[in-house]
Amino acid sequence: MTAATRTVSLERSTSESQISLSLDLDGTGASDIQTGVPFFDHMLTAFARHSLTDLTVRATGDVEIDVHHTVEDTGILLGQALLAALGDKRGISRYGDAFVPLDEALAQAVVDISGRPYLVHSGEPAGFEFHLIGGHFTGSMVRHFFEALVLNARLTVHLKLIEGRDPHHIAEAEFKAFARAFRQAKALDPLVTGIPSTKGAL
Q1: pLDDT-derived band of residue 4, with 50, 70 and 90 as boundaries?
Q2: Cross-strand partners of 108
Q3: Would you give the distance in Å from CA 32 to the centre of its chain?
Q4: For 48, phi and psi rounded to 5 degrees?
Q5: Which end of the chain has fewer CB within 10 Å, C or N?
Q6: What is the phi-psi region of residue 52: left when phi exceeds 0, alpha when psi lies from -120 to 50, beta otherwise?
Q7: Closest Cα partner for 99 from 91, 87, 111, 109?
Q8: How far apart are CA 50 and CA 84, in angstroms?
Q9: Is residue 75 a contact partner of residue 57, using CB atoms and an 8 Å limit?
């Protein structure tokens, strides 16, 4: 993280994937995403746009085997980058919540930048986890991505699908709801003095 800004650049390399990522929490939502997983690129682009986080991602992985490693490792690195960019969390709003519709789908997300990783994710219809969105991205990757992100960013997140039928709409509504809630939570609040916790640390 650079002084007086909330920007960070990180890299992660394993035998399964190589990822570089940079972000600016105080951006305009600009993004440049190339992960080799087209639907995942679409979801990360939506996250950047709706959270007003500038985001650049370059990832290569063993997608000829499965998209699992690329999606999980990107979630890990994005979570680590969010944690680093938030710094000591001084002056942030801390909490955010959002309802986001996409046609027949409706998702709710509540975010607490708590320092305590916990994900509650519910409401997806039976069989969603097996559906191939775009022919390559299984529905199960939605939860898997958020598990990786939440653990590494140390967020408490409640993510609930309230209505939904089309798998593409379900996944996109969930990503956008998280993005909108995170946008509120990361925002710098001029009324907040210091760290918004009675403990004095988050």
Answers
A1: low
A2: 99, 160
A3: 15
A4: -60, -50
A5: N
A6: left
A7: 109
A8: 20
A9: no
Q: Residue 86 and residue 152: Cα distance in Å, rounded? A: 12
Cβ atoms of 92 and 104 closer than 8 Å: no
∠ CA 13-18-23, rounded to 5°: 95
Nearest to 196 by CA among 112, 83, 74: 112
What residues have CB less than 8 Å from 85, skipping those under 6 apart? 1, 6, 7, 8, 23, 24, 25
Contact yes or no for 53/27 (Cβ under 8 A): yes
60: which 2 tokens?
Answer: 């290569």
Answer whether 0.90 is exceeded by the pTM.
yes
Distance between CA atoms of residues 82 and 114, nearest Å? 13
- Residue that is written with structure tokens 């640390």 in the block: 201
Q: With CA atoms as reference, report the closest residue to 97 among 112, 87, 109.
A: 109
Structure tokens belonging to residue 194: 């210091």
Rounded CA gap, 32 and 189, in Å? 28
Q: Is 127 helix (H, G, I), strand (E, B) or coil?
A: coil
Give pLDDT tens digits for 51-109: 999 999 999 999 999 999 999 999 999 999 999 999 999 999 999 999 999 999 999 99
